[in-house]
Amino acid sequence: MKFIPNKLKFKKYQKGKNFNKISKPTSFLQNKRLGVICLKALESFRLTSTQLQAIYKSIRKLIKKNGKITLKTFPHTPITKKPLEVRMGKGKGPVNFWISKISVGSVLCEIQSKKVSVVKKALLYTQIKLPFKTKIYSF
What we know:
Blueprint: E1 36-41, E2 45-48, H1 49-63, E3 67-71, E4 77-80, E5 95-102, E6 107-113, H2 116-129, E7 134-138
């Protein structure tokens, strides 16, 4: 599974404002469904496409075919970087990686399954891989 957008209007974008200052909690799960367990962010952070892929793979590894995973975030923002020891000017550098801006209270993924214990174990396993604080919610 590829975590890079297929088509954008422009190749390179500006990063925008400082994402760490976004501290307003977003609305949390408007439609609460039974049997759904989700992973919620407790800090604002920039989640890269490789970290998102690690989340998906670690959940899929433990759940296998027993549940349905829906990722609520997707990396749409390209981050560029110039090579080392290059002089100033000469335009913007090539795209280095893709990120998605995670604000406080946003849901990263939802898992719908009948085996709740396996899903909670998988989400605990994914919390270790993430560099920011998250919390597991179940209904």
